[in-house]
Amino acid sequence: MSNSGDAALTMPGSADDAGPDPARPRKIIHIDMDAFYASVEQRDDPELRGRPVAVGGARERGVVAAASYEARAFGVRSAMPAVTARRRCPDLIFVKPRFDVYAAISQEIRAIFAEHSAIIEPVSLDEAYLDVTENLQGLPTATAVARAIRATIRERTGLVASAGVSYNKFLAKVASDHRKPDALFVITPEMGPRFVEDLPIGRFHGVGPKTEARMRGLGIETGRDLKARPLEELVARFGSSGAYYHAVARGIDERPVRAHRIRKSIGAETTFFADVDAYDALAERLRPLVERVWGASLAKGVRARTVTLKLKFSDFAILTRARSGAGFLADRAAFEAIALSLLHDLFPLRRSARLIGVSLSGLSTEGDAVPAQLGFEL
User: Which residues of this protein are catalytic (predicted)?
Assistant: First the structure.
């Protein structure tokens, strides 16, 4: 195990080769902005620096969207109810999200990525994969590319990014998380299989809390335990994900970095601690979801034609309503207006709701999309 100061991911061949060599391992970087939303707020407001900050709703039904590292020291985490966060950290400062600002900074950071690679796969506003097997600056190693990107991000934005460097996406993601914040970590081809064996199963990207609990119930605590299970068993227990778990337990991940990938939809939802049947209360929970989804669409560089509202009721029945149009949604305000209109049209509710969600679909890239002011005629 080695950090970036001691090891560089140097593959056979050189960055100056005429073309990619199929026999040569890929060079993949995963960049993850440290506490992105909270760090932006601390950067822009000096009074917040060094203090525990949560981006999100401070009201009783509010939820933490992001937490500074000072807040995380108290156990405050994203998706945590505001009331719980305040209980853990009485001095916590809540700041309203500014997703348009975060999206603009995300685009600035993506422009830095583009100086080094044309193969960029944004995951969200604050993270992305880059394939730098052939980098545009002719730097000798992927580690050198990651170091240059981190330095440029800090210089141009005043923000800190962590980076993971490896020969596939799974291990690059693991590496970027390994020593956060403000870290650069490398997992070489020689390190990969053994590194995965010692990895706690909860650190596997793609293993969520429910799957982690199932795996632990089966006695799978580490990558070594996972590797010991045959492919047939993993597929039988975890379906199509079983083959993925079988591969990454061996340090294998053949997924390419997909540039310009267009998702079918972008959405977010939240579950309530107590069922809700009042329009104002539901609208209050819907607005931050609209902000989050709109921010994600800006990060992906896409426009949308369709807004879909989702409610799950106390009896677990699900109701969805959608509105589409020939043109693309013009801005966040129009998105929010349509989402609220869809919600209003459902009243009065026959039963209380336990979950609300909203999504955008009918997506197209920014270059293909011609925004139109659709208002309520999306």
Answer: 127
- Interstrand relation of 184-186 and 161-166 (parallel, antiparallel or unpaired): parallel
- Which among 276, 289, 283, 215 has a CA at the least distance from the CA of 245? 215
Among residues 41, 127, 291, 336, which one is catalytic? Answer: 127
Sequence-distant (≥ 6) Cβ neighbours of residue 190 within 8 angstroms: none
Q: Does 92 share its domain with 166?
A: yes
pLDDT tier at 303, thresholds 50, 70, 90: confident
Averaged pLDDT for residues 14-34: 67
| Cα–chain center distance at 191 | 26
Asked if residue 135 and residue 240 are part of one domain, the reply reads no
Say if residue 142 is in the same domain as residue 69: yes
> Do 39 and 153 fall into the same domain?
yes
DSSP, residue by residue, 62-91: -BEEEE-HHHHTTT--TT-BHHHHHHH-TT
Would the annotation count 126 as a binding residue? yes
Residue 309 has pLDDT above 90, yes or no: yes
Q: Domain limits at 216?
A: 191-257
225 annotated binding-site participant: no
Domain match, 184 and 278 both: no
> In CATH, what number is assigned to the domain containing residue 77?
3.30.70.270
- The tens digit of pLDDT for each residue in 40-97 reads 999 999 999 999 999 987 665 678 889 999 999 999 998 788 889 999 999 999 999 8
Mean pLDDT (whole number) for 328-350 = 92
Number of compact structural domains in the chain: 3
Residues 300 and 165 in one domain: no
Please tell me whether residues 184 and 199 are part of one structural domain. Answer: no
The DSSP symbol for 90 reads T
**Does the annotation mark 377 as catalytic?**
no
pTM over 0.90: no
Q: How far is CA 114 from the centre of its chain?
A: 19
